[in-house]
Amino acid sequence: MLNRQCDYVLTGESPVHAHIVVNPTGWLEVEIAERGQCFVAELDKVFFRRGEQGMQLVCECAARQVSLSLESQDAFELYRMIDDARQELECLMCDL
Question: Which helix (H) or strand (E) holds 1?
């Protein structure tokens, strides 16, 4: 069980870089250095929806909702990483 890390350029008015860590213990960590933002969300509270400029990564964390715009291809890659992490966690819990 290893963390999976990726970097994406967020779409929007001013493109910024997001460093995303998918933790197989059920957490997603996002850091946007240019904005000085960091947040952590449970994988169960992360979902994707179609947006105006590609796909939106929506994370519910600390009683607020954070939405990040991703290219469709990047969103699909991230979705696969999250799905793989969920499956790993499920297998681990079944083995215990």
Answer: none
